[in-house]
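Following up on my earlier message about protoporphyrin IX containing FE. Here are the inputs again, as you asked, copied directly from the submission form:
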Amino acid sequence: MNEIGSLLFGILIIVISTKLVQWYLKRKTYCDILNRIPGPKQYPVIGTMYEFFGASKYDFFYINTKHSKVHREIYRVWVGMECTVRIIKPEYIEQLIDSTKHIQKSSIYRFLLPWLGRGLLTSFGERWFQHRKILTPTFHFSILDTFCSVFSENSSILVDCLRKYSNTGQSFDVFPYVARSTLDIICETAMGVKVNAQNENVENEYVKAVHEASILSLVRAVKPWLYPNLLFTLSSTGAKQKQVLSILHSFTEGVIKERKLALKNNTTSAPGTDNESDGNIYGRKRRLAFLDLLLQANEKDNLLTDKDIREEVDTFMFEGHDTTASSIAWTLFFVALYPDIQDKIVEELKTIFQQSDREATMQDLNEMKYLERVIKESLRLNPSVNFFSRIISEDIYFGEYFVPKGTNCTVDVYHLHRNEKYFPDPEKFDPDRFLIDNISDKHPFSYIPFSAGPRNCIGQKFAMLELKSEISTILRSYKIKPTQRREDVHICSELVGRPYEGIHLIIEDRAF
Ligand code: HEM
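Thanks, got it. Here's what our run produced:
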């Protein structure tokens, strides 16, 4: 090597070393700041991921949250080289989610992108704002009113599907039945198509694929070596995901295609069709499917592309059926465990329906105040969304702890709901915690099963009506009894917190 070559080589080494030192110092300062927040011991590169080594996917929830029992307000974990600050204190949660600044979901949601794309759950910025504005009217009170008959019809089909177990003493897992029913409901109400999943006797392919896609996203999240897309694509998890996504996307594409065709042939009650003016179709009030609004925005105003629609449909199909299925199953479990609470619900239903077997209307559902408290208490103890995450978009202080911009921050809903200050004897199932007099002195962010602030759950009113309709219809037909003890049913937190072993019930006909 001549002199110039050696000189250039020397300069290159100096530049690279300087950059490395700069990166190291910056990184060290960043890590030092975050390591002031308490949390488990971390190691270079792997961070605190060693906790997941050898664990089965069913342990994720308990590993993820075991530190919340020790650090009751805030702590940090390191997913490889990425820090996540977990917050449990209502005041910190309010700072994060009540603000319009920290609106972007955390980096963990990127694993949902192949499935849900940039739908409402995963998008941010102007795109999120525009889509939320387009979608909000679909959950208007007057539209929900027209959905109540769909809730009732599908709840009755669910009751029929369960009849074979009644008075037999045979225990069965109610979860798959409920999941098929909530899938039928979301398809019919939001998408305007009937898929009749409840008529199938086998596990529905779409429901099964949702389950698998949730697990695969989580498996990837705890294996940093699968983060690079290329490595993931080559892995067995990547291959499985490809297969599962093809089932999910063909299902939603089919739903969109069917609805588009129906709109074209004028066989629906969509806005802008001949049926719109009469306000009544097939003896029912006109229904405005969520998908119709999207298709309208696509056709008339060019606001949404075909891909945008597919992504929103995937998001709503997932958010709209898995969360509710889980909440219904958990609530049925609690109601089965506590017969006195079950009796009180039935008393309320007798007052409302006076022995009639008519369908529940919106007004009936609004009168189910005690059942509402039972559902709220169930969502407190086993929220279907146990955690959700954001990126800190501006430097923030949580109490004495500084968290720099760009850090992931997770809200631990499960442990928030067990704060003894707001929920004394937190493991006790007590629906009366939600009596008006008992909630007035609670921190507004101490109970957030549907999140809160600008990115709260858009479907929460829909969900509450659906839950009441399904649970009340079941209890008007059957007495339900548990076959598992509470301590034996574990949470399997994929994206939604499901009962790991299912919810096994015994049912008997009820003379209503
Ligand atoms: C018991 C049932 C439900 C629970 C517990 C629940 C809970 C939540 C929570 C906690 C979030 C915030 C998630 C996050 O920030 O990552 C959320 C968002 C969302 N939920 Fe729900 N949800 C339920 C039912 C539904 C239903 C029935 C629908 C649709 C029909 C729905 C649609 C959505 C959508 C689209 C978002 C994203 C909203 C946005 O970011 O603007 N959810 N839900």
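One observation from looking it over: The pocket of protoporphyrin IX containing FE is lined by residues 120-121, 132, 190, 315-316, 319-320, 323-324, 327, 383-385, 388, 449-451, 455, 457-459, 462-463 (CB under 6 Å). Hope that helps, and feel free to reply on this thread.
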